[in-house]
TrEMBL record:
InterPro entries listed in its UniProt record: cNMP-bd_dom (IPR000595), E3-bd_dom_sf (IPR036625), ERCC4_domain (IPR006166), Lsr2_DNA-bd (IPR055370), Restrct_endonuc-II-like (IPR011335)
Protein name, UniProt field: Cyclic nucleotide-binding domain-containing protein
One MF annotation (Gene Ontology) recorded for this entry: nuclease activity
Organism (species): Mycolicibacterium poriferae
Pfam families in alphabetical order: ERCC4, Lsr2_DNA-bd
Domain Cyclic nucleotide-binding: from-to ranges: 127-217
Signal peptide (residue range): none
Length: 329
């Protein structure tokens, strides 16, 4: 009877601690992988040559197989046991590169939840205009919503909306890896502080909160405590976990639409706003002073005795100070 073999990876420096050997009629395949079975999430598999399977392999698990067949771009694996017996190795592409993922029916359902996002207009807005930060590399397209997008350099966040020319709400998008990296590196604290200066703001995470406790390169408690501290320090910036990228995109659209409706209908709230202005109208007067670059504003701020970082985005108050000093009137 054919067996699926899982052994310890002898390369201690590898980020994938296990070797997976898959028996096929045309010849066995060997992969480096991060787990012994895709129980809670799909496992990334890195294909290697058969020669990497050690002659004295330290076997972790042997799974007798009822079936192991390659069908198109996938290998269907059925183990000889009652539970957790079906899985699939899928050959696909991720960000333009070939990739292999080992998934089970349960993890596939979690990765692609059986939900359909609504198509109804948020707050009855016929077409919401959303600003997309010019530095956002893979932005949301809002293809299924009634949205038009405009690329602009935002003072904070990745997506925002205006009311009467003022930025009234912004959303910072994070993958789980980006969230953990920016939190442990200290960057997220400054991003949330910038967002807190706006009337409405949020951080949306394209994953489940439970995934924080499956991290293996950083202590999960450190990340959980850090997020809790951010919420206590800046309670007006929500941190929302939305499971998948499409659901995070839908949530961002609904949040920004609600913020736009709030800013447009509550006069008292508009009077309290003091956030930076972003002019989205096309420039008609060719004699008007163009918006300066970040480097120019940084140089001006230093000459004016203001404290600015050596690199990265400038705080909203620095931009406002430049506008106040350079606006004729």
């Amino acid at each position: 009877m054919a067996e699926l073999l899982i052994a310890l990876n002898p390369d201690e420096d590898s980020r994938l601690p296990y070797l997976l050997r898959v028996p096929l009629p045309a010849g066995d395949l060997v992969f480096r992988t991060s787990g012994t079975w895709p129980r809670v999430k799909a496992l990334y598999c890195y294909p290697v040559g058969l020669h990497e399977w050690p002659t004295d392999a330290e076997i972790v698990e042997r799974l007798p197989l009822r079936s192991c067949q390659r069908r198109g771009a996938a290998i269907d694996v059925i183990a000889q046991r009652a539970r957790e017996n079906r899985s699939q190795l899928v050959f696909t592409t991720a960000r333009g590169r070939d990739a292999v993922f080992w998934q089970a029916p349960r993890t596939r359902k979690q990765a692609r939840p059986n939900v359909r996002t609504p198509s109804a207009r948020a707050h009855g807005i016929a077409e919401l205009q959303i600003l997309v930060d010019a530095h956002e590399r893979y932005p949301y397209r809002f293809g299924t919503q009634q949205v038009s997008t405009v690329r602009r350099a935002l003072p904070c966040g990745d997506y925002g909306v205006l009311a009467d020319g003022e930025l009234v709400a912004s959303v910072e998008r994070k993958s789980l890896a980006d969230l953990v990296g920016s939190l442990t590196g200290g960057k997220l604290r400054y991003q949330v502080a910038d967002l807190a200066a706006l009337p409405r703001a949020a951080v949306v995470v394209e994953d489940r909160y439970s995934q924080l406790f499956k991290l293996d390169r950083v202590r999960p408690a450190v990340v959980a405590d850090g997020l809790a501290e951010l919420q206590i320090r800046w309670p007006n910036v929500a941190i929302v976990f939305c499971e998948t990228r499409p659901l995070a995109e839908e949530w961002t659209y609904r949040f920004l639409a609600a913020a736009h409706d709030w800013a447009s209908t509550e006069t008292a709230a508009l009077q309290r706003m003091s956030s930076p202005r972003i002019d989205i109208a096309p420039v008609i007067d060719t004699a008007a002073t163009p918006e300066p670059s970040t480097a120019e504003v940084r140089s001006w701020a230093r000459a004016a005795g203001l404290d600015v970082p050596d690199r990265g985005r400038l705080r909203p108050d620095i931009w406002q100070a430049w506008r106040d000093a350079n606006t004729s009137g």
